[in-house]
């Protein structure tokens, strides 16, 4: 398993915003952060979680989608010109209006429980009013099935982030599930009369949050006209190899 090294992850992993526009003008002060995406082709095609991309009916009037990509050390605001959603997989494939993008390699290999993983993404919270900062989370897969369950929660905003196994992306984050278990339970009799007995039950619960990621293993057979009647991975390979 190789070591993951991204000189500037902001060239690969990008925030998606909704912004108010007028003609070609973009009013960044109106921006609304939606989530994280990552490039999978050199032609500006990126993958994210489908639920972060609003439908045309949900998008505010006069607003469009943009991505902010790091280029030559400077942030560049780029239009998202196309977006295709696959609701059954909480998947969206979006096209960013930018050529020669750096991209991440994806894999359809299964990541069984116990596999070490790491995530690179952008949470919605800010620290010290300094803007949104990229985070790297590390952990392991706790359960591998339709979803990959992770031993760490997914912060709001990091849905759509790439899940790395080694140097390749094995899936994308979709959210967090909550689990509860009783740590202790006690019963205490408060009152006894001729007609009733009142018992107070006290429970202490521990709440655990598990992140969820959708694995590319289950997306091998997606074939759609949006993908030029190819599978998702045939489309990615074609985009990266055509001159």
Protein described:
With 243 residues, the protein is mainly beta. The chain has a domain at 9-104 and 222-241: Trypsin-like serine proteases (Thrombin, subunit H). The protein has one helix and 14 strands. The strands form three sheets. The protein has a six-stranded antiparallel beta barrel with strand order 1-2-3-6-5-4. β8 (135-144) and β9 form a beta hairpin. The longest helix is centred in the C-terminal third of the chain and has 10 residues, at 232-241. It is globular and about 85 Å long. The mean pLDDT is 86.
Order of helices and strands: EEEEEEEEEEEEEEH
So how many helices?
1
Average pLDDT for all residues: 86
What is the level 1 CATH name of one domain?
Mainly Beta
Percentage of residues in DSSP E strands: over 45%
Q: Write the CATH fold name of one domain.
A: Thrombin, subunit H
Q: For the record, what is the CATH homologous superfamily label of one domain?
A: Trypsin-like serine proteases
Secondary-structure topology with pairs:
Layout: E1 13-22, E2 25-39, E3 45-49, E4 63-71, E5 74-86, E6 91-96, E7 116-121, E8 135-144, E9 148-150, E10 162-165, E11 168-192, E12 197-215, E13 223-224, E14 230-231, H1 232-241
Antiparallel strand pairs: 1-2, 1-4, 2-3, 3-6, 4-5, 5-6, 7-8, 7-10, 8-9, 9-12, 10-11, 11-12, 13-14
